[in-house]
Amino acid sequence: MALSHVNQHGEANMVDVSDKAVTTREAVAEGILSLSAEALEQVQNNTAAKGDVLAVARIAGIQGAKQCANLIPLCHPLALSKVDIEFTIDTAKSQIITRCRCKLNGQTGVEMEALTGVNVALLTLFDMCKAVDPAMTMSHIRVLQKQGGKTGHWHRNE
Prior knowledge:
Blueprint: E1 23-34, H1 37-45, H2 53-66, H3 68-71, E2 82-90, E3 95-106, H4 111-129, E4 137-147, E5 154-155
Antiparallel strand pairs: 1-3, 1-4, 2-3, 4-5
Helix pairs in contact: 2-4
Binding site for substrate: 74-76, 112-113
Pathway: Cofactor biosynthesis; molybdopterin biosynthesis
Enzyme class: lyase
């Protein structure tokens, strides 16, 4: 299978989606922030110096998904109909699992928007907690599932 963003001359180009059918398209991406127990406790108790960490990261993730085409050069600007950011706190592993779900009726998928939303939310979590734990790590950033378009439904098998 050929790369879709490379033309017959090997040059980068934006894919023409004008002949694709408009379908409901949805994607879910996830990433994990590992942080110290102290930083996680501040997030959970809403006592971080910068304020409500999860609320700010949620809004940042939504904004990030909406700005995807401004950040990734060959992405199409999309009119997203829904962006959800959700957080799951795993105290046993001292992690915040972040998921972004993006949805629209359109001619191209929303995987990049979901991935951008997750990354911006994770970066915001990092920014809000770095004074307490500068050694945090972000990992396992990936698409979990996508649906719509000619390929239908796909989900990660793990």
